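Sorry to interrupt, but I need a hand with the structure work. Leave the record below and I will have a look:
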Amino acid sequence: MKPRISMITLGVSDLQRSIRFYEQGLSLPRMDSPPEVAFFTLNGTWLGLYGRDALAEDASVSGRSEGFAGFSLAHNVSSEQEVDQVMAQAVAAGAVVTKAAQKTDWGGYAGYFSDPDGYLWEIAHNPLFWVGPADK
């Protein structure tokens, strides 16, 4: 397997609500998509939104889940101020802050929010971590 992730697909309980959150609230660029799914262009990959039950059925697994899903998505930015800006944008779009942005023990600045389905996003500034040219 080659070291890359082509797409991240989130199983969501209300597709239209999640589309509004990511497209209008977080300003992610939406691609043309069939009505039962939504795709967003990210820098080097794509984000897909698909009904939770339909995604579970497609993978032949149970759609039931409770609590922490065991992973988070991360978005690295170029400054502490940008962390605060993205966190505020997410909250305005309906996100819930699970950990306020703050200095970290690894020398950065980060916070977490959860989207309408509880998926965790870490917004971080890590001065030692490379930020791609498209993000500068």
Q: What stands out?
A: The two ends are 30 Å apart (CA to CA). The chain is about 25% helix and 30% strand. The chain has a mean pLDDT of 90.
